[in-house]
């Protein structure tokens, strides 16, 4: 009789990306596309964490600045910057990252619960903290990046102007 226990948990692939010296991750199934960074078109009346919108596949996609969202120091995008297009409840939202590193398989044995606040980021925004060697990676809960009110605000801002 084989005493080896097989895990019923499917492996999860995550994409890792950076904001400054911090490393973050998101489930690959929440990522629609990773695009080379192009400056977004500004949106009138948007809060400062919404930096504008881009056009992608004939759609207008709002773009948020994760550095502002997570209250990190501002930085100019470099040639390594990317716009990660996330799918949040069926809607696309772009997010500016300093760089995208790679896709890795999440080893849940190295995933721990986040404290109430991890490096300025509230626990509800994360699935957990992944330890990879000496590095700590904040595994984001992309669905919680924006509140329902913020998603409604994005819809309102992105709504085309009425024509008469």
Keywords for this structure?
164 residues; OB fold (Dihydrolipoamide Acetyltransferase, E2P); 6-stranded mixed beta sheet; 5-stranded mixed beta sheet; 2 helices; disordered N terminus
Structural class: mainly beta
Tell me the helix content.
under 10%
Q: Please identify the top-level CATH class.
A: Mainly Beta
Largest sheet, strands/sense/barrel? 6 strands, mixed
**CA gyration radius, whole angstroms:** 17 Å
Strand order in the sheet with the most strands: 8-1-2-13-12-9
3D architecture notes:
The protein is mainly β and 164 residues long. The chain has one domain (12-158): OB fold (Dihydrolipoamide Acetyltransferase, E2P) (Beta Barrel), CATH 2.40.50. Helices cover 9% and strands 46% of the residues. It contains 2 helices and 13 strands; from the N terminus they run E-E-E-E-E-H-E-E-E-E-E-E-E-E-H. The strands form 3 sheets. A 6-stranded mixed β-sheet has the order 8-1-2-13-12-9, with no helix packed on it. A 5-stranded mixed β-sheet has the order 3-6-7-5-4. A two-stranded antiparallel sheet has the order 10-11. The longest helix has 11 residues, at 148-158. It is globular.
Sum this structure up briefly.
This protein is mostly beta strands. The chain has two helices and 13 strands. The chain is globular, with a radius of gyration of 17 Å.
Write the layout of secondary structure elements.
Elements (H helix, E strand, L loop, with lengths): L11 E8 L2 E6 L3 E6 L13 E7 L2 E7 H4 L12 E7 L2 E7 L1 E8 L4 E2 L4 E2 L2 E2 L3 E7 L2 E6 L7 H11 L6
Parallel strand pairs: 2-13, 5-7
Antiparallel strand pairs: 1-2, 1-8, 3-6, 4-5, 6-7, 9-12, 10-11, 12-13
């Amino acid at each position: 009789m084989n005493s080896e226990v097989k895990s019923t948990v499917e492996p999860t692939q995550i994409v890792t990306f950076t904001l400054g010296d911090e490393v973050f991750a998101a489930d690959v199934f929440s990522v629609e596309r990773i695009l080379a960074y192009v400056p977004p078109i500004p949106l009138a009346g948007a809060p400062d964490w919404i930096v504008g919108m881009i056009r992608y596949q004939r759609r207008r996609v709002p773009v948020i600045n994760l550095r502002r969202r997570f209250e990190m120091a501002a930085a100019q995008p470099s040639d390594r910057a990317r716009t990660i297009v996330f799918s949040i409840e069926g809607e696309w939202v772009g997010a500016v990252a300093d760089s995208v590193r790679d896709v890795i398989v999440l080893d849940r044995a190295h995933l721990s619960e986040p404290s109430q606040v991890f490096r300025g980021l509230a626990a509800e925004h994360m699935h957990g903290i992944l330890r990879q060697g000496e590095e700590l990676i904040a595994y984001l809960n992309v669905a919680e990046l924006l509140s329902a009110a913020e998603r409604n605000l994005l819809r309102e801002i992105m709504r085309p102007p009425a024509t008469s």
